[in-house]
C-alpha cells in the first residue's frame, strides 16, 4: 500500500486531551487507533484511524512510550509528520444509534481505559448516543439530553470479558501513559445489533440495550413488582376499580378441582393437571407455581385478551416474568418497582392491606411460586402469617433491595411505598405522563 506524507499542526490546550489514541503494530509503527468524535483533530479532519505517526516536532517517534514523552514535554504547539492511508481508501461514516445503559460506569475507576479524561461517566438507565463503534474495545458516545461531550465507553465485548474475570495480563487491552495511547492486538469487531440480543441473552450478560424514541403512546401492560407484603395487590385492585374501562387484571388458571359454588372464568379458569402441564411445556404461561399439589399460573392468552379489549393489563407478577414481557413487542410493559419503606411504615402497610381484604394470608400462587423464590426457603401459608414479626419485616426490606438490583434493567420507575394513597396517585400520574411525552423503548418493539 502506498502512503502520502503530510504535516499537521495542533494547538495543545491546557488540561484538554488531544482526542486520539494510538497503538503499535508488529513492525513497531505507531498507528492512530481512534480519533474522538468532536475533537479538534476530528473536526478539522487532521488524522484518521490507520495513519502512521512518524515525527512530532521534528523528533522521530519509534514507540508509543516515546510519543508519550514528546507530547508531555511539548509546549503549546504540536507538529505531526504523518504517513496517511491511501487516498483511495474510503472512510465510512460510523453508524449512529441509541442505547440504554444497563450498568453504572465511572471512568476514574477503570484501570483499562487508555485515558481517564476521555471516558464518559454514565448510570443505569441513561440514554447514550453511540457515535462510533469501529473500535471493538472502546466505543464513542454521548449522553442524550445533556451537553455534547463525546467520550469513550467500554464495548459489550470488553465488559463481557471483564465480567468473566479475564486477568488483565491475559487480555488484549493494555493501558499506556499518554492520553491516550495503548498497545493492543487487533481483534475482530463485534457489532452490537438488535438481532444479536439473543446471543447476549443466553449469557445473561446485559450491558446496553438498543432503543429508539417513540411518540407518546399507551403501554399495553403495567407490571407492579416488588417484595412480598409491600402492597402491590392493594395497588393493583385499587387501580382497576378506579377505572374498569381503562384497566383490567387477568384471571389465573389452576389445576385444582372446581368447587360446587365456583363458576369457571370468574375467580379462576380450571384445567385438569395434564392439560395445564402440557400448556406449561408449550410456554403458554408467563409464570406458574405449585401449591398443595395443585398448579396455578397466569396464561399469556389471558393477557392478550385484556389488551385486545383496548385496556391496559395490570399485573402484580413475579420479576421472572419481566423477561418475557420486555422482550416481546406485543406486551410493551411499563414496569414499576414498588419498594419497601422503613420498618414502621411497612407495618402500617400490612395493617392497611389486612383491613382492606388484602392480607398476606390470602396470597395467591405467585406469592409462593417456587420460581420466584427459588433462592429462598419455600414459605407456607402458616409461615406467611408471621409476617408481622420484626424478623419478617427485615427480610422484606432485604428482599426489596435484592430484587431491585437483580431486575434493574427492566424497571422504568421506582416508587417507595411509604403511603398507599400517595403511591397510588404517583402511579396514576406516571401513566398519564406516558401519554403526553416521547418514550425511549427497546428497538425490537418497533422494528
From TrEMBL:
Alphabetized InterPro entries for the sequence: GK/Ca_channel_bsu (IPR008145), Guanylate_kin-like_dom (IPR008144), Guanylate_kinase_CS (IPR020590), MAGUK (IPR050716), P-loop_NTPase (IPR027417), PDZ (IPR001478), PDZ_sf (IPR036034), SH3-like_dom_sf (IPR036028)
Record's protein name: MAGUK p55 subfamily member 6
Keywords: SH3 domain
Guanylate kinase-like domain location: 219-432
Pfam families: Guanylate_kin, PDZ, SH3_1
Residue ranges constituting the SH3 domain according to the UniProt record: 94-163
Family to which this protein belongs: Belongs to the MAGUK family.
Protein source organism: Parthenolecanium corni
PDZ domain sequence ranges: 7-86
CDD domains: SH3_MPP
Nucleotide-binding is among the record's keywords: no
